[in-house]
Amino acid sequence: MIKNMKEILKFAKERGPKTIAVAVAEDLDVLLAVSKAQKLRIADAILVGDQDKIEKIAKTHHIDITACEMIHEKDIKEASRKAVALVSTGKAYIVMKGLVDTAIILKAVLNQEIGLRTGNVLSHTAVFEVPNYDRLIFVTDAAMNIAPDLMTKKQIIENAVEVAYALDIDTPKVAVVCAKEKVNPKMPPTVDAQKLEDMNKEGAIKGCMVGGPFALDNAVSKKAAKHKGIDHPVAGCADILLVPNIESGNVLYKSMVFFSDTKNAGVIVGAKAPIVLTSRADSDETKLNSIALAVLMAAKKSN
Ligand SMILES: CCCC(=O)OP(=O)(O)O
């Protein structure tokens, strides 16, 4: 069971390198992450984007990108399509979002001809290392599914469980997080939470233990759970937090990044290949962690 970002990097070194196709690579943090991943032998990179800008950033900041292949494409949408096509034609194993809006890269991923659709729901899983929490904690979905219905939530859980397996976490505990820990028909996410727990008990969601509804406190703190009289095997020790919608997920993600001393990584799951997807504002360290996470996902797929 991988417990922190250091171990994610360590295992990615052992299971890599894998080739990544970077869409719109003209970004300092992206280039720093990619060159470090290459130096650590975690990944090789094909940089798709504005070659002049890429070379200027690399030169100004003394970043060694000499080992990277480069495809010149100034247009952001075209660069996204070309990066995705590199993966669908087998020249790369992983797509990485560079300096491009999430919606644009995802449109390329979902493209009928060159895309990476599988028919499954695509969802984002963020992995956080949080001080004083004894395990990695996953947040899903902070980036893609706006207001998932029950069956979409089921698949979002299954996608996050796939990430957990790539980190050798067996039977991850999934907390369906709401504003309350009691079912309230006026709060639909609490009703879904109960249904998801029931589906898990009935075997319709496999390979994990689902509990809910939980408020965030009793999902991650045994003390809070005890205080509120909650006795549940997931209470206080969740591996995966399923949030009700993109607003709560994105706010939780960015609160963790900007208000606390966390390390993080993020990928989109459900396509034919993992997609490295962080916020444009995330650090080069986060982007490197995300590349390593995607390498572990790709290595698991090719096993
Ligand atoms: C995982 C967060 C995705 C996101 O919010 O990206 P941007 O900040 O680049 O919009």
Automatic annotation (TrEMBL):
GO terms for biological process: butyrate metabolic process. Keywords: Acyltransferase, Transferase. Residues 74-295 form the Phosphate acetyl/butaryl transferase domain. The keyword Transferase applies. One of its GO terms (molecular function) is phosphate butyryltransferase activity. The keyword Acyltransferase applies. InterPro entries: P_Ac_Bu_trans, Phos_Acetyltrans/Butyryltrans, Phosphate_butyryltransferase, PTA_PTB. Belongs to the phosphate acetyltransferase and butyryltransferase family. This is Phosphate butyryltransferase. It comes from Marinisporobacter balticus. The lineage of its organism: Bacteria, Bacillati, Bacillota, Clostridia, Peptostreptococcales.
